[in-house]
Amino acid sequence: MKKYISLLIIVLCNLFFSIKIINAQAIIQEINSTQEISNNDYKIHLQEVAFKNTNQDFLIFSVETNLPQINLKNLQFYDDKIFKTVEEDFWVKNQDLITLIFNSDLKDNNQTKNLHTSHKGLTNTTEQVLISLNQEKLEFICWKKVPISQAEIKDFNKIWQKNLWDINDINSCIDSSQIKNNQILERIKSNQNQNSWKIKEENPLPLTTKSTTSKSSTKNQIPNLQEKQIEEEPIIQITEIFAYPENSNLPEWVEIKNNTNKNINLINWIIDDQEGGSKPKKLGQLIIPPNEFRAINLKELKINLNNTNDQIRLFNPQGILIDKVIYENARKAMSYALITIDGNSIWEYTKSPTPNQSNPQYITITGEIITLPNFENQYFFSLKSGDQIYQVIFDENVIKATTAKKLFKIGITGEFTGELMQNSSFNILKLHSYNIVSNNKEPQSNNNSINYIFAIIVMGISILYFLPNIKQWLKSHFGKYLSPSLEE
């Protein structure tokens, strides 16, 4: 009888712990699940096209969706072949405008809604551009110049069958011979034919992905620099400084942001460090697209920043100070960046420089840890705040794995500051810093008490079950030393 009771208790204990493990795995699986976005969840509408830009061609398109946000990952762009695939998550909302820039070596920027491709550009005679997702064709535009090849006619007929163009005749495509260099095509109607587009009155400034120094401008005399800074918010702003590279082969750089909704050319603008340091230098042709960032190589400008204390000053062509940033005690391999925490902008050293990209925007979330940290492919744990569950990811730069194992326990409440990256089904918080508010040991203690009780019961039953064997073994080896009561 004791044997069956013992086995029953052991089975119940195993069942209890198995249920806890299954529940934990279910939580993790729910957090890690993603929602598939189908082609019917959104529409793509081309708004502007520049295929005769002397520097860089570009496309601007909008998104129409009823969802809170959709992911453009796997979206593809074709002419004669695929020239761009969105390979990473790229989240957009309804009516967002996204720009695809050609001949660019930059990475896609979700913050500024800019996609980049190294493809040199679009054919400016006869061409057909197609946008698709998972082989489903979403949007199309075409232009032609006679004579038109049979291959182009054949490709057009295939596209027309998908109802992406109104007229089954390639001659209904836009007449490219009427488009001059650096002119933009602008959509004016929702239907699809050559009358849906017109030439935009304002010519584009050429986009660029690299900073260059104009040889002619550097020989020009630098105007008298006026230290008094303008009071209104600068249209051009310094957002990041990399003053102390890990080795001398790496360049120092400063990042500039265009705060307007238009392209801005920084030709003849002036960069300088603190008074009495390097000589001020004029910039050459440098176009910054709207709300984009550009890192300027200071080594090429022969500006050397101090590793202790220094400053970066930005002047307009008239020599008026537009922005200035002072830093102290530059840290090796770290950048001094303008970041945002809970809506407040502050300058802070960061171990993850972001040249040509927006700086992190952090929020603080107070919550309770509900899963132990995972240290396999990526460090993460789950955090519950109100009704929301967050997957908090972190690395060794934030906290060492050995420390995280001791600190991030189930039931602990803390304030976790990080970059929020929303997914379709859950929120990801890329941890920047943390502050443990309280260690909720009581719930954990209650759980441990239950576990201890089960362990004691199992141990007691096991002792009762094996007691006759133990008594027999003791009697055979130590019988002469045992009391009469044990020998019985």
Question: How would you briefly describe this protein structure?
Answer:
With 488 residues, this protein is an alpha+beta fold. The protein has 6 helices and 31 strands.
Distance between the termini: 22 Å
Q: Which CATH class of the largest domain is shown?
A: Mainly Beta
Q: According to CATH, what is the topology of the largest domain?
A: Immunoglobulin-like
Q: Provide the spatial order of strands within the biggest beta sheet.
A: 8-7-2-1-12-13
The total domain count is: 4
- Structural classification: alpha+beta
Helix content: 10-25%
Quaternary structure classification: single chain
Query: Average pLDDT value?
Result: 79
The appropriate CATH architecture of the largest domain is Sandwich
Give unreliable regions as ranges: 20-37, 202-219, 441-446
Portion in strands: 35-45%
Count of DSSP H/I helices: 6
How would you sum up this structure, described in words?
This protein has 488 residues and is an alpha+beta fold. The chain folds into 4 domains: 1-32 and 454-488, no CATH class; 42-199, Lamin Tail domain (Immunoglobulin-like, Sandwich); 215-339, Immunoglobulin-like (Sandwich), CATH 2.60.40; 361-439, Nucleic acid-binding proteins (OB fold (Dihydrolipoamide Acetyltransferase, E2P)). The protein is built from 6 helices and 31 strands. It has helices spanning 2-32, 150-160, 215-219, 401-407, 441-478, 484-487; strands at residues 42-50, 58-65, 70-71, 75-78, 82-85, 91-92, 97-101, 114-116, 127-133, 136-144, 174-175, 185-187, 197-199, 226-229, 236-242, 253-258, 264-265, 270-272, 281-282, 287-288, 293-297, 309-315, 320-328, 335-341, 344-350, 361-369, 374-375, 379-385, 388-394, 412-422, 427-439. The strands form 6 sheets. A 6-stranded mixed β-sheet has the order 8-7-2-1-12-13, with no helix packed on it. Strands 5-4-9-10-11 form a 5-stranded mixed β-sheet, with helices on one face. A 5-stranded mixed β-sheet has the order 14-23-22-18-19, with no helix packed on it. A hairpin with a 4-residue loop joins β30 and β31. The chain is flat and about 115 Å long. The two termini are 22 Å apart.
